[in-house]
Each structure stands twice: as C-alpha cells, then as structure tokens.
Design goal:
- The longest helix is centred in the last third of the chain and has 8 residues.
- This protein has a five-stranded mixed beta barrel with strand order 1-2-3-5-4.
- By secondary structure, it is mainly beta.
Length: about 110
C-alpha cells in the first residue's frame, strides 16, 4: 500500500508580519529569554521610557540591567506577537554612580 505524507502548505507554516514600524530608542535590558553565544542571536525583554518591549536579533552581548541604544523595526509577528527585530544595539554608559560602581566591580 502506498501512503503519502502531505506537508502543510508553506503559507500555513510561515510567520506573517502583520505590522512594521521603525524603532529607535534607548532601552534597559530586563530579562534574557534566549541567547545563542555562537551566533549572537538573542531574545530579550527590555523597557523603553514608555513601555516594555521584546527584542530579537544580534543582542547576546547585552547584559541584564544594561542600557543600550537600539535600532530596528517594531513588528507584529503572527506567531510571537509584538517584538522589535533589531538591526543594531549599542551599549550605553550607566545612568548613575551606583550602576557605574556595580559595573566596575562585576566579575
């Protein structure tokens, strides 16, 4: 007997981008959901001055509590919801002396 396995059409497996707008903000990293140190890809939770955001892209170099200037595209992904697809993330100096001291003495 012959049995064929039929894969779902590509359109059903694809992740659709429902909305996209430019993103250019300073953020503070709050949590690391995932990071691949081999290729630098990471998924991070962060805060802007206005609201929390999920960042995806070349972010593995950023640490929890660190400030960064992030550019990219804010998208609504059909599978993962609202997130920022990051094109660049530049670490910023700490905002206050306490943060600077913590960073200076970190192992």
């Amino acid at each position: 007997s012959f049995s064929a396995q039929i894969a779902a059409p590509a359109c059903l497996r694809a992740k659709f981008i429902l909305m996209a707008e430019p993103f250019d903000h300073e953020v503070t990293i709050r949590r690391q959901r995932f990071a691949n140190t081999d290729n630098g890809f990471a998924v991070l939770d962060a805060d802007t001055a206005d609201d929390p955001v999920v960042l995806v892209g070349p972010l593995a170099h950023l640490e929890i509590g660190e400030r960064a200037h992030v550019t990219g595209t804010r998208v609504t992904n059909s599978r993962f919801g609202e997130q920022v697809q990051v094109s660049a993330a530049r670490p910023l100096p700490p905002e206050d002396r306490t943060a600077l001291n913590r960073q200076s003495f970190a192992p």
